[in-house]
Amino acid sequence: MSRKQMSKDKKRKKKHRVLKVILTFLVIFLVLLGGFVSYSTLKNGWGWQGLLATMMGHNQETVEDLDEFKILLMGVSEDISSKLTDTIMVASYNPKTQQAALLSIPRDTFVGKSKANANSYDKINALYQTGPENTLKAVNEITGLDIKYYAVINNNALIEVVDAIGGVEFNVPIDMKYDDPTQDLHINLKAGVQKLDGAKAEQLLRFRHNNDGSSYDSEYGDNDIGRMKTQREFMTTVAKQTIQLKNVMKIGELLDIVYDNLETNTKLSDVKDYLPYAIEFNTDNIKTDSLPGEVTMLNKLSFFEYDEEETQELIQEMFYSTETTTEDEQTENTGTTNVTTTQASQIKIELLNGSGNSRKLTNATNLLKQKGYNVYKTGTTKTTPTTTIINNTDVDSQITTNIKELLEIGTISSTATSSKSTANVTIIIGEDF
């Protein structure tokens, strides 16, 4: 063997040794990485949720630090000259409890200042013309929720999504027959379970009443009430049928549809931490309802007037209710005076902001609602240095003590603010909060 050939063989062997070392280190690295990922995935929970959480650097504590995500959804039609929100819904998702909620806001809800001079611009569906932020502000005032995000979706988006996933199986509640040549709207659906394509889905969602004036029965909720119920049920059904393995390969197409038809103030940074937990969400855990109230005539126009007290009770039930704990569990979990969630829910609280800082009012509201208290009324009062908890109706002292411990500040008083007050407890938030 020539010296040249021996040199080549030597180099080849050296190269093989180098490759062997690299491969060995690569295998060790992959094994270690696999072990780490497997261990972290196990700690985060097996399945897609655990894998995604691990890939995003999450750990067991991440979900505990996530607040409930709330967003205002608005659906806008493009087939009329003035842009009105046909659909207004509050949607929330709690990653800790894996619960979600959909609350419909009737589009004719009165949001004006004078009932005597009410006009069509005093309906909540007209606010979008001045900006989605104004609709968001009105919904926050109605519900008392601190919703930060909104998403405006053109009705075309849902139509395209339904077609993209190959149609949706849905139980149409009644026969629907309606024609409006001015909008080129023609609805013709039979009652019963059937596969709806995008065009038929649009008919379903826009139906209010038939040509002869008949609508959903009173038990279901006629006209707009029934329409909103159908919208909520259809959206839930679409969610169930979209989150299926067969649609994984269509994710790009679905995202393109949403991108082309969506206006929102949310950013990826606002929602990315929720994704690992939302991916395995069970759509059976969605609570749905509509804003309570009644249709009334104001200045010869039809409006929906919401009931403030019933609204706060519903908000409490849908967005703040938690499982009732025993007194021992509550003491262990919170370290505060023994008050169960059931006891707290029966206490009507009026919150008055005397701090001069609106954020302090929001923080106090959220603290109390998270512990089950019924904050049914908020307002402002003159600036005061000290937080005061006023026992209007001689409720058990454990309640006021518990409230003070939750707020971590406050002076308890038994002097009622007003003989006309319907609140069990009035809390004046001071500058010290």
Explain the overall architecture.
This protein is an alpha/beta fold and 433 residues long. The protein folds into 2 domains: 64-316, Aminopeptidase (3-Layer(aba) Sandwich); 322-429, Alpha-Beta Plaits (2-Layer Sandwich). It is 39% helix and 22% strand. The strands form 5 sheets. It has a 6-stranded mixed sheet with strand order 9-4-1-2-3-10, sandwiched between helices. A 5-stranded mixed sheet has the order 14-13-17-15-16. Strand 11 and strand 12 (301-306) form a beta hairpin. The radius of gyration is 28 Å and the shape is globular. The termini are far apart.
Short description:
The protein has helices at 3-44, 48-55, 132-143, 155-164, 198-206, 223-242, 251-261, 268-271, 275-278, 308-320, 327-334, 341-345, 358-370, 397-407; strands at 69-76, 85-94, 99-104, 149-154, 168-172, 176-180, 185-189, 192-196, 262-264, 286-290, 293-298, 301-306, 348-353, 374-380, 388-391, 411-413, 425-429. With 433 residues, it is α/β, with parallel strands linked by helices.
